[in-house]
Amino acid sequence: xxxxxxxxxxxxxxxxxxxxxxxxxxxxxYDDALEHKFTQDGLEKRNISIYYDHNHLVDDDTIIxxxxxxxxxxxxxxxxxELGHKFVKxxxxxxxxxxLFETVCVxxxxxxxxxxxxxxxxxxxxxxxxxxxxxxxxxADKKNKYYVVESDEFNRHFLTYHGVYSIITNIEEEHMExxxxxxxxxKTFEIFANQTKKLVVANGDNxxxxxxxxxxxxxxxxxxDNNDIVIKNMRLLESGSVFDLYVDKEFFGCFDIPLYGxxxxxxxxxxxxxxxxxxxxxxxxxxxxxxxKNAKRRLAEEKLGNxxxxxxxxxxxxxxxxxxxxxxxxxxxxRLVVVFAPNTYSRVKDFENEFVEALDIADKAYLTEIDCNxxxxxxxxxxxxxxxxxxxxxxxxxxxxxxxxxxxxGDSVICFMSCAYIDYLIEALKKMVNN
Length: 435
Hints:
Layout: E1 2-6, H1 11-22, E2 26-30, H2 41-45, E3 49-51, E4 62-66, H3 75-82, E5 86-87, H4 90-98, E6 102-107, H5 112-124, E7 130-133, E8 137-139, E9 146-150, E10 165-168, H6 182-193, E11 199-203, H7 207-210, E12 218-222, E13 229-237, E14 240-247, E15 250-257, H8 262-277, H9 282-289, E16 300-304, E17 307-312, H10 317-330, E18 336-340, H11 345-350, H12 352-359, E19 364-367, H13 386-389, E20 395-397, E21 413-417, H14 423-434
Helix pairs in contact: 5-8, 10-12
């Protein structure tokens, strides 16, 4: 088969393109973004062609799939529709692919990427697996039995996924441009959960998860004693996090993870339990935890002189909060500066005060102006990053042209956060320091 992916540099679409290629298909794609993105590394490794014009030939028998960021009015969408090509929605095509395997679906408002990366690591290093990770990582081999899939609730995408095992890390208000309210979100997760074939592993400390009417077997995990899998004796150290797990009131094991923050203990618990259900021993899981490296842009660190740069995908207030707390756990004696690039007007509008609370964890917070490719500024009058900046304890606006605002932060930890392209700011900082 031949596939053409519109928006091929998007995290999900890039991953799907790589998987389609690995399964023996011809794959190419289009994107508006001319600059290099980390999501294209896997595409380039496979020599998948990326086009930026509207003049290249697309064979008549090619199936077109597309990102929701591209409307029917986009020139490339219009061109291919007029040529009579068959279009298949991204999530529908993804659902068709993963149904070929025994799938572990990892869902939740936060923590999907880390949890799915950890399950993938356990299986890949033992029995082998295919995977779809939202950080732009995808791989498939027809010989593998298992498929680990980060299952996104955006636009109800995950309703085309049918897991053998499903994980629900948490449920919060998010993507309110797609949902009416928290009840709408929870009911959508309920539909997803009840499509699971064997077992749901769900965060029982989350009140919205507990409201779900499960019609399939479920195991709850968390710190509360009413869970099936209980986390006890957690220690958050500068070297990582250590905790005990009890399953059905019986001691299961003590685990040492190279990750920071209570939220990472939650994520690891879900991944450990599912891996054990898939046949891995506790001893093997402990051994594999030592070599786990998180996905791209998840607390990714590098040193720049005495400065430490952290690059993270956090973009929701809860994610920002727990990530900044994790950085403070690892570097308790360093000044913490955050540079946040909001990527949607709707999220700033919906969570203005929550962003303020989360960003104020840092000693200093900078925001870029909002840069969104799926929303129009004119639809959100009065919404800008300054709504947040004006309420911060110590906040300011920053851009690549004003990166010298960071010139006196030589011994600080500077945490760059966004789900949007933010490399240009990091590169501007490096250039300033090196000069």
